[in-house]
Design brief:
With 149 residues, this protein is of the alpha+beta class. The chain has one domain (8-148): PvuII Endonuclease, Chain A. It is built from five helices and eight strands. It has a six-stranded mixed beta sheet. It starts with 7 loop residues before the first strand and ends with a helix.
């Protein structure tokens, strides 16, 4: 598939089975944002062959054709598009200007597993996200706006 910014893709989640686990147990495991994010980092290369998973500080993928960098973020209860080093218990942003500058120069792939077994995703420019969501967070109530707006 070709990467298009601001287009919502709805794709089937990869089939995963774990010996001895029920379908509900696997679903619960996959739908946890921390685990889902790691799964999507690899799956995105399958859906979009021009993406290369690189797992670098501040970004996860590079487009082989355009050299654009992408940071993949998963939407569970919310989607925080700060750098991972600033998100999580005990972590905080020390320099707001630096955080905003990083976002302005980054591209994002936002994935959403709320429709499991389907996955929604959208490619967004950081500058557009920051303009629309200046707190660097998309809330659960803004999810549909992001994917349908």
């Amino acid at each position: 598939m070709k990467i298009e910014f601001d287009k919502t893709y709805i794709l089937p989640c990869p089939k995963i089975s774990i010996e001895g686990w029920t379908e509900d147990e696997v679903k619960s495991f996959i739908c946890d944002g921390r685990r889902f994010s790691a799964l999507m980092e690899r799956q995105l290369e399958k859906w979009f062959p021009t993406l290369e998973f690189v797992d670098k500080a501040g970004y996860d993928h590079v487009c082989r054709e355009t050299i654009l960098k992408f940071d993949q973020k998963s939407f569970t209860k919310k989607c925080d598009f700060n750098q991972s080093k600033h998100v999580g218990y005990g972590r905080k942003i020390l320099n707001e200007e630096e955080a905003n500058e990083h976002i302005m120069n980054m591209n994002y792939i936002i994935t959403d597993v709320s429709l499991y077994p389907m996955v929604r995703l959208i490619f967004k420019r950081g500058s557009d996200l920051l303009k629309k969501y200046p707190k660097r967070r998309i809330t659960k109530t803004q999810r549909e706006e992001l994917f349908n707006g």
